[in-house]
Recover the amino acids of this structure.
């Protein structure tokens, strides 16, 4: 019985010492850093329509990143770097031909219209999620990291109830 009391007493003393050490390690007057801004939740969302809010015409940079414009070029030939990333995102056994078979227009509902061909079980195209993450989140000279900060919430939107979604939209709805 004495051994149990000594053991419990010892554990209690060790616990008090450990708790005391932690409480003195954190300055009592320290402040937590400010909360991270999460677009659409606690800060404005610059890209409420995800793809089409980001892929716009940037005349000041002499870059037209609208998917309707890019798809015209892709219909002839997909740029080699983009093709390599796209191939890497494909399911086993899928070999891309280097051309996108269809063109978008300003009224195409993106990315909803893309999912028809870019499904998880596609035999002809990379799955949409894997393709987007490979394009936007890999590579040494990745524009999305330098320009879009690699922020997941530019595409993935969370509502106040905690549900996530990726909105679809049309280029004609966002202007520029």
């Amino acid at each position: 019985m004495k051994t149990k009391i000594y053991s419990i007493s010892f554990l209690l003393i060790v616990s008090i010492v450990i708790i005391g050490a932690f409480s003195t390690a954190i300055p009592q007057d320290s402040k937590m850093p400010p909360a991270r801004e999460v677009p659409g939740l606690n800060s404005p969302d610059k890209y409420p329509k995800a793809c089409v809010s980001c892929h716009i015409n940037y005349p000041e940079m002499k870059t037209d990143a609208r998917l309707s414009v890019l798809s015209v070029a892709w219909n002839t030939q997909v740029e080699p770097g983009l093709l390599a990333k796209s191939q890497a995102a494909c399911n086993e056994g899928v070999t891309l031909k280097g051309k996108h078979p269809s063109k978008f227009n300003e009224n195409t509902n993106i990315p909803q219209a893309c999912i028809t061909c870019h499904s998880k079980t596609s035999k002809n195209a990379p799955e949409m999620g894997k393709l987007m993450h490979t394009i936007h989140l890999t590579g040494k000279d990745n524009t999305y990291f330098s320009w879009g900060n690699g922020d997941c919430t530019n595409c993935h939107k969370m509502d106040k109830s905690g549900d996530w979604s990726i909105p679809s939209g049309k280029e004609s709805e966002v202007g520029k």
In short: The helical segments are 2-25, 51-54, 67-76, 80-88, 128-137, 143-148.
